[in-house]
Amino acid sequence: MPTPQRFLGDDPMPAIGLGTWRLAGDSGAGVVNDALDLGYRHLDTAQMYGNEAAVGAGMASSNVVRHEIFLTTKIDDHHHHPTDFDRSLDESLVRLGTDYVDLLLIHWPVEWDIMVDTLRSLAAAKADGRARHVGVSNFEPDQVDFALDRAPIEVNQIEYHPLLGQDALVEQARDRGLLITAYCPIARNEVAQDPACVQVAQRIGMTPAQVALGWLLAQDHVAAIPQTSNQGRLVENLAAGTLKLRAEDIEAINATQKDLRIVSPPKSPWRSR
Ligand SMILES: NC(=O)c1ccc[n+]([C@@H]2O[C@H](COP(=O)([O-])OP(=O)(O)OC[C@H]3O[C@@H](n4cnc5c(N)ncnc54)[C@H](OP(=O)(O)O)[C@@H]3O)[C@@H](O)[C@H]2O)c1
Description:
Helices cover 40% and strands 17% of the residues.
């Protein structure tokens, strides 16, 4: 079954991608290669993960051609100065073995005054073709508004799963025409402890991880990037793309407690103007 798509303009972005944090070296490249073999066409990496070369090697050794892959990377916190931004993006492209990424994100917000330059650099990277699309990650609603005023951002990548409520960001994205990419989409499998996810999973003969992914993808402007290095779970997660949950199952998961934040901001960098 084909993976459902989200769209950035006319460009498809597969709704299930492979998160690659912790996938490194030859074994990481092997997982990327396996994932592409199994049908993944969306890969998520970051300068911060130190694994762009492994992701590049996995793509290079695969039979899937570059233009069929939706590739995301993210600018590291230390690369916001315009010179660093440009140099680091060029270095990322070399490591990834490509001359463009499909989506370039600012990994974390920093101070307002620095962010003005960063967003200018981001817009320039889109204009010169090194990034087909641009966006942000871990931005709060006021930060997204600030970014939208300055760069053609199309995505906010945030922690989002059945155990964490993100209503303001998800509604903002819908209202402003952005896509949400959900990271930690299965809450590092904490969803296997959640009674609502477990109950739905048992009823339909799927796993709680698949139910979590199905719940996210029931929202038509949300994509998810689960990470696994296990062949069986690569298949399991990709297969969740076609899961259609009943309205009452979605309601049951909506009602579950939503206060589990797995990734905390490294610091609180956003100073009010
Ligand atoms: N923008 C950001 O700041 C940010 C922050 C964090 C993450 N991310 C991105 O989001 C991706 C995913 O997030 P994450 O890796 O933190 O969390 P996650 O995808 O929710 O969970 C990954 C963990 O769950 C296990 N797992 C995967 N599929 C499973 C399944 N079907 N059943 C049971 N266990 C399963 C994996 O172990 P096995 O390998 O053993 O299967 C791994 O330990 C990252 O790789 C990264 O690309 C972005």
